[in-house]
Amino acid sequence: MALLVVSCLHVYNNWFGSTGNSHGVEYCVVCLSKVSKGEKLRWLRCRHCFHVHCIDAWLKVGTTCPICRVNVAPKRNFIISSMVSLAKRVGQWIENPLSSELTVAFCESFGF
What we know:
The chain has 112 residues and is mostly helical. It folds into 2 domains: 1-73, Herpes Virus-1 (2-Layer Sandwich), CATH 3.30.40; 75-112. It has helices spanning 2-7, 52-61, 76-95, 100-109, and strands at 11-12, 41-43, 49-51. A 3-stranded antiparallel β-sheet has the order 1-2-3. The longest helix has 20 residues, at 76-95. It is elongated. This is RING-type E3 ubiquitin transferase. It catalyses: S-ubiquitinyl-[E2 ubiquitin-conjugating enzyme]-L-cysteine + [acceptor protein]-L-lysine = [E2 ubiquitin-conjugating enzyme]-L-cysteine + N(6)-ubiquitinyl-[acceptor protein]-L-lysine. GO terms for molecular function: ubiquitin protein ligase activity; zinc ion binding. Belongs to the RING-type zinc finger family. ATL subfamily. One of its GO terms (biological process) is protein ubiquitination.
């Protein structure tokens, strides 16, 4: 479940705006360290932000925001639709692992 929660959350590399501000984020409350320009941050649905490695470790234990305790786990319908979509993609790959263009390019590059 933890992997599913983390995989549904976005990571931001350039979180400083054009004005150079950090959008109000000064510290990561998980590690209590100051957030620096260029660090990767993860925003939760509740709009709280943390270092990626800090919140990922936190979410391995639970599914709530460390600040407001809102449940950040994806909704059941989202989980089901994600699993169905993944199953379809895997099925398509099993039926046709290499597209015809890729097969031709592969064969030509190896002289087949």
